[in-house]
Amino acid sequence: TDTKGCCGMNFSEVFKQSNQLCKVSPDGKYLATCVQYRLVVRDVNTLQILQLYTCLDQVASMEWSSDSLFILCAMYKRGLVQVWSLEQPDWHCKIDEGSIGLVSSRWSPDGRHILNTTEFHLRVTVWSLCNKSVSYIKYPKACQKGMDFSADGRYMALAERRDCKDYISVFVCDDWHLLRHFETDTQDLAGVEWSPNGCVLAAWDSCLEYKMLLYSLDGRLLSTYSAYEWSLGIKSVAWSPSSQFLAIGSYDEKVRILNHITWKKLTEFEHHPTITNSKAVVFKEVEKRPVIPTEDLSIQQIAMESSLFDIQSKYEIPPLPVQVPVVKPDPDRANPKIGISAIAFSVDNRYLATKNDCMPQSVWVWDMQRLGPTAVLEQTAPVRFFAWDPRRPRLALCTGNTKLYLWSPAGCVSVKVPVEGGFQVQSLFWHCSGDSVVLLGKDQLCLCYMATDEEKHMLRSHVVGLGVACFTSH
Amino acid sequence: MGDWWTPPMMPDPGLGRFQQAAVTPGFAVLCAGIREFSSVSHIDESPSRHRSPPATRASETNSKHSYSVLTAFCTEENIPQCVAYVNQEAAALGLCGVCVEARGAGPSLGAASALNLLYELLQLQRRGQRTLHDLETQQLKNNSDLEHLQHNNSRLKDQLEHTRRENSGLHEGERQLQLKIRTLQRYLKSEKEEVQKLQSIIASRATQYNHDAKRKERESAKLKERLNQLLVDKRDKRLAIEVANCVGRADGKRSLWKTSKMEARHEGEMYKALLSDYEGRHQVLLQENAELKKLLQLMKKDMVSMLSPRKTTRAHMPAEDSLEQAGSEPDDELCEGSRDPLEQMCEQAREQLANSIRLQWRRLKSHMQRLDSQVSLAASREQEEVISRREHEEAITHMKMELQQCTEFIQTQQQLLQQQLSLPCDEETAALLNDGYLLEEKERLKEEWSLFHEQKKNFEMERKNFTEAAIRLGHERKAFEEDRALWLKTQFLNMAPFVGHRRHATSESRRALTIGAQSGAKVPSSPAPSCTSASHTGLSTPTSDPMTLPSTAELYRTLQLIPDSRWYSS
């Protein structure tokens, strides 16, 4: 019962979910969702239920193993982790972390080990499904991103804190052999992240000090970068998929791009509230209530047309210069709403999307070839989340209303989710094929299928014309 | 003068004078007297003339002033004394005395001298008056001057006072400001001290905080350690894994023991990964480098080619060539020689290449400079050209404008045409546009019309001919029918035995035939011709045109009314 909309996009029916726990398997075949204490696995294409598992308690976290064979469900309150097998529904595994408590649970890249972080970050317990063995990693640091696996799944970097000093340990994931262990020159290490090629490890200090350290896989310090002092520093970090650029978003509302040869600053992107650059296209979302003549208003019609109360929206391109709405942050509060909180590169390394917290309604898209802004999407509501298509330069974003917004170099569209009663998109993620987007509401989910190749032409024409994408519910 | 002369007899003028001073009624008079006196010194004319009888003078004064006769100066009795007195006075005034001589018993005066004296005195008086007047005006003037000056003075005094006051005010202000500055400086100092204090406090707090944080962290670490220990010691029963059956590794291999060999392998793998990354990067850089070098070579070649034709012309200018050509000759060798080492990435080759590029660049620069100077030299000469260029530009703009106009015109035409096509109801424009077509059509129609007329005429003529021919044919046919009937009758009559009936029948048939002939050929109604002439009339038309006889035969033939051969033969 797919609902067909214009622009060649189809929407699935709505399913229940809780805690926004919904993941597509890495091979793209299955869709796992948690509804309270039940785990439902569906076929992505047919959306038929394949398996149904019942956990011991309400699931707090869920994750697919890398080979799409197992699903991990963590119940932090009970300190429990349950693992389910897709191939053998009878197979079961339960890990009890005991009285120490559990705050985080995740798969190792090989899909045969589970890493549990205990409360107070006392230790990381590594459980093996192969031989039931357990090993501990002591002194993990509680920070923004204390643990990261390299993209090939071979190495794990772990931030540690011992004797009031920061350390980084590099483990070989195969047998949890400690490959390297070194001290970092940081006041308070906030995070570690591998470059996509797995050869460089970026480590950054907490927001009190702007400091980015780059380590080689063998623990050598390649470079240190600090843009300024005496002010709040790094807020977000992102590697380009080619490992060529490292984008650093900071509290001074700028994104700095480091290159991978000299590790010096290539350029910096400023988020000026006044946009004067003629190369940047500003897409301003404009909401419009449908105008209906009063004589046509009959009760029957009201009953029939649910779209009567829907607000249509479309994008307009206002003439430059454009003033982007800015929210003044409260200086007395901790974690002020200022600075670049989200950065993401498109899969072809061509575009960079950023969000400045004091411009909550806008997403900026930068061209990495021209090293300048190429588009600014100004929404009517604060942007909740945005994500790049894993195959094409296409950005999907949501603002917590009933619409899905898409940007591509060709233009911008807003698509209303055609669900009765309204579906407020809180979050979203792409299917690994880039053909569909999973939209997450408060306790619902819905799949949006993108236009297929033959339909794409039509979409393109719509996009170029910046047509209003509006839907009736039939 | 006489008003104060109260004592009638004054033997001594000095005494009189004394009295005079004593009895002075007013200061002004005295002043006048003094003035008169002072002025006397100037009068030094003929003293004789001053001699005038005092009596007359007295009388004069008497007439002026209402003296009583009793108190007169001179009486009959005291003339000599008076004269003496007058003389004395005159002498005192610097005039010659009247020189009065008492002649005889009666007092007689030298009239002339007295008059002279009188005159002198009058003159003196007048002069005195004049000076007095002058002096008075002077006095007035001076008074006003004085007043003005006094006024001025007072004003200045006021001003002075004012400025003094102002000055004191300013002094006061300055003093206050000084005070303020002093207090502010004091404040500043205290603030600075405060800041320093605060900074030190902050620093101490920071150290305190750091210290505390470290302490806390250590404590928490200790706690964690302890907790860990406890956990390990307690052997948490709950801490467990329940697996239905163990699963194999994702790669299907068995897990390996941790050995030093494994460690070495891990190290090896790590370095391999790093190495491959570096190699990849190196490759990319090499490629980039090669491309850049290619570009450099290309640039150099371009430069050489750009500069080489100049060398021939440069031969005429040996002054600057000596240096450059000296440099350029080995350079050409380099250009050849550098190619091979370039690929070998030789240090030397790189240097050579850079050097040659640098040289070429310098040459290009000098060339550019020379061109610049040439341009500046030629600029004056090119003024006209510049003007011509301007004209040229003007012409171009003009042409452009014209072009635009033309295109606009064409566009409007096209538009109109389309309008006309889409809106045929617009009759005026349609008529306008139709006119051309109509005219053309009319012409064509006219031509066709004339052609048609001609054809019609021809056709008409043909028709006439044809009808004539048809009529003729009709006649001939009737004649033939008659002939045949006649012939048949004769034949029949000849064969039949009733000869008597023969004549009747023929007449009958002839009558019938004539009637038919009458209706057919519209022969004028004449009395029916005789039987013999009937055949004659039947052949009358052919006889009128004997030449048509064969045509008739032809007609017959065409009408397939082939006559009997007997007809002809007979």
TrEMBL record, chain A:
Look up the domain of life of the source.
Answer: Eukaryota
Q: Which organism is it from?
A: Electrophorus voltai
Query: What Gene3D superfamilies is this protein classified in?
Result: YVTN repeat-like/Quinoprotein amine dehydrogenase
How is this protein named in the record?
Answer: WD repeat containing, antisense to TP73
What InterPro entries does the database record attribute to this sequence?
A: Centrosome-WD_assoc, WD40/YVTN_repeat-like_dom_sf, WD40_rpt
Any one GO cellular component localisation term in the record: microtubule organizing center
Automatic annotation (TrEMBL), chain B:
List all Basic and acidic residues biased stretches: 144-173
Q: Which residues form a coiled coil?
A: 275-302
Cellular component GO terms held in the UniProt record: adherens junction; centriolar satellite; ciliary basal body
Q: Which UniProt keywords apply?
A: Cell adhesion, Cell junction, Coiled coil, Cytoplasm, Cytoskeleton
Ranges annotated as biased composition (Low complexity): 524-535
Q: What is its main location?
A: other
Where it sits in the cell: the answer is: Cell junction, Adherens junction; Cytoplasm, Cytoskeleton, Microtubule organizing center, Centrosome, Centriolar satellite
Q: Which GO terms describe its biological process?
A: cell adhesion; intraciliary transport involved in cilium assembly
Report any Pfam family annotated for this entry. ADIP
Record carries keyword Coiled coil: yes
Q: Spans of biased composition, class Polar residues?
A: 536-547
Q: Where is the signal peptide?
A: none
InterPro entries named among the record's database cross-references: Adhesion_Centrosome_assoc, Afadin/alpha-actinin-bd
Q: Where is this region: Disordered?
A: 42-63, 143-173, 309-338, 516-547
In the record, the note on similarity to other proteins reads: Belongs to the ADIP family.
Kindly provide the name given to this protein in its UniProt entry: Afadin- and alpha-actinin-binding protein-like
Species this chain originates from: Electrophorus voltai
